[in-house]
Design brief:
Blueprint (H helix, E strand, L loop, with lengths): L4 H28 L4 E5 L3 E3 L4 E2 L1 E7 L2 E6 L5 E7 L3 E2 L11 E2 L3 E4 L3 E8 H10 L1 H27 L2 H16 E4 L2 E4 L5 H8 L4 H13 L3 E4 L2 E4 L2 H7 L3
Antiparallel strand pairs: 1-10, 2-9, 3-8, 4-7, 4-10, 5-6, 5-9, 11-12, 12-14, 13-14
């Protein structure tokens, strides 16, 4: 049975709670082992899709965006990461380098990462039950996110996909204000198109205009304020 969008979000939130405790242990572990950190500026790239990489990166603070480049040259956005997290645990545990599965671009003013030799990282994991638990929850969390993303792309039209994407921003960047829920992060129309598989920016502009006219959201200082969550949920295919 296919879960509804709200069910998928609820599962992801529950997994996030478990992973948060584990990621706190991982950050403390890396700090105790004096793992070096690096800092990157806004709109620079940490890694590029397809290039060999010798390190595993753990986001310490900041906001990043994962994406891949399609064969026609368009960028397809996968996810924002706005909390401490391992950037990628794909591939095997023994190779000294591996091809990066996606681009990682910094979206906040700065982002700080622990930079761990990937073979050493897996040694840490294999020697520490608490880190093994983190890895287990990490993969469960990513699977849940991927199912929700696939559901958003396959089962919704363009408007439904945009509504589902905006709804997903609440958990990442939302905070309550007098007018509704402020998405306290600037998301461009180009990024929305990239997340929703929409090739035309004008289509995004038109649908956002419809949402504003219907009283679903407003825009203040280039940030969304969501005023009608029920409308968004009604547009998302279950």
């Amino acid at each position: 049975m296919i879960r509804s969008a709200s069910d998928s979000n609820l599962l992801t939130k529950e997994l996030n709670k478990m992973v948060l405790t584990d990621i706190e242990y991982l950050l403390s572990y890396l700090e105790a082992h004096h793992v070096p950190t690096i800092q990157k500026k806004r709109h620079t790239y940490l890694t590029y899709h397809g290039l060999a990489e010798h390190y595993t990166y753990v986001l310490k603070d900041g906001i990043i965006k994962n994406s891949i480049i399609l064969q026609d040259g368009r960028e397809f956005n996968l996810s924002y990461i706005a909390k401490p997290d391992v950037i990628s645990l794909l591939r095997d545990e023994v190779s000294r380098s591996t091809d990066q599965p996606f681009n990682v671009r910094i979206e906040s003013e700065y982002a700080t990462f622990y930079q761990v030799n990937r073979v050493d990282f897996w040694k840490y994991v294999n020697q520490t039950p608490e880190l093994q638990n983190y890895i287990k929850n990490y993969y469960r969390k990513k699977l849940s996110e991927n199912i929700f993303r696939l559901q958003r792309m396959v089962m919704n039209g363009k408007k439904g996909a945009i509504c589902a994407f905006i709804y997903s921003l609440i958990d990442l960047f939302g905070r309550k204000v007098a007018d509704g829920i402020l998405i306290d992060f600037v998301v461009t129309n180009d990024d929305i198109a990239g997340f929703c598989g929409i090739s035309s920016r004008s289509s995004v502009n038109r649908m956002l205009k419809e949402l504003r006219e219907d009283g679903v959201l407003t825009v203040k200082n280039h940030k969304f304020i969501i005023q009608d969550i029920s409308y968004l949920l009604d547009q998302i295919a279950n």
